[in-house]
Amino acid sequence: MPDLIDGSENVSVHGIFNWIFLLAIFSIITVVGNYIGYKHPIQDSLVGMAILSLITLVGVWMERKLPLNISSIIYISVIGIVLAFPGVPTSEFVSYYVSKVELLSIVTVFLAYVGIGMGKSWNEFKTLGARAIIITILVIASTYLGSAIVAHIVLVMTGVPA
Predict the structure, then answer these.
(1) Range of the domain at 141
(2) Which phi and psi angles does 49 have, rounded to 5°?
(3) pTM for this structure?
(4) Is there a single domain that holds both residue 26 and residue 100?
């Protein structure tokens, strides 16, 4: 079975439909988890996930169609920031509905997808060896520690007791 998303630079109708299909499945699972875990209304979560999915689709399309060598995550981030920036006409709408989607709901589905992807290529993962596993653990631990230090500094600077 061919990959749903092949990562090629060409954008075809088939490729776009694959992205839409994948994002729809991802969104439905996230909305269900969001409802069960956080009791957010399904309709609000669905609109929030539709907004996030549309931003994602536009960002991926821009990465592949624009002649700049910029990652889709940059496009997605900028589009999201612009749409939710105070004073922009879409700000209240986007902020309200996207706030109805909890980050942990999204991350849970994403990590499950990554786990399935890893399981499909377990032999490739094993060839990376112990060094790759150690580096991965160190990167994750360093990111967590760095985030905790920055958060602590900001809390102390704003007067929150440590």
Answers:
(1) 126-162
(2) -70, -35
(3) 0.72
(4) yes
Neighbours of 41 (CB within 10 A): 12
DSSP state for residue 90 in the 8-state scheme: T
- For the chain, the domain total comes to 2
pLDDT digits (tens, 9 = 90+) for 15-30: 888 889 999 999 999 9
pLDDT digits (tens, 9 = 90+) for 72-88: 999 999 999 999 999 99
In a domain, 97, yes or no: yes
User: Do residues 58 and 115 share a domain?
Assistant: yes
CB 45 within 8 A of CB 101: yes
Give domain status of residue 102, yes or no.
Answer: yes
Using the structure block, give the residue that is written with the tokens 């958060």: 151
Regarding whether 133 and 76 lie in a shared domain, the answer is: no
Same domain membership, residue 116 and residue 131: no
H or E stretch covering 103: helix 103-120
DSSP state of 96: H
Residue 24 CA to residue 59 CA, distance in Å, equals 16
Supply the DSSP symbol for 9.
S
The rounded distance, in Å, linking the Cα atoms of 4 and 6 is 6
User: What is the number of alpha carbons within 13 Å of residue 123 lying toward its C-beta?
Assistant: 0
Q: Taking residues 103-126, report their average pLDDT.
A: 77
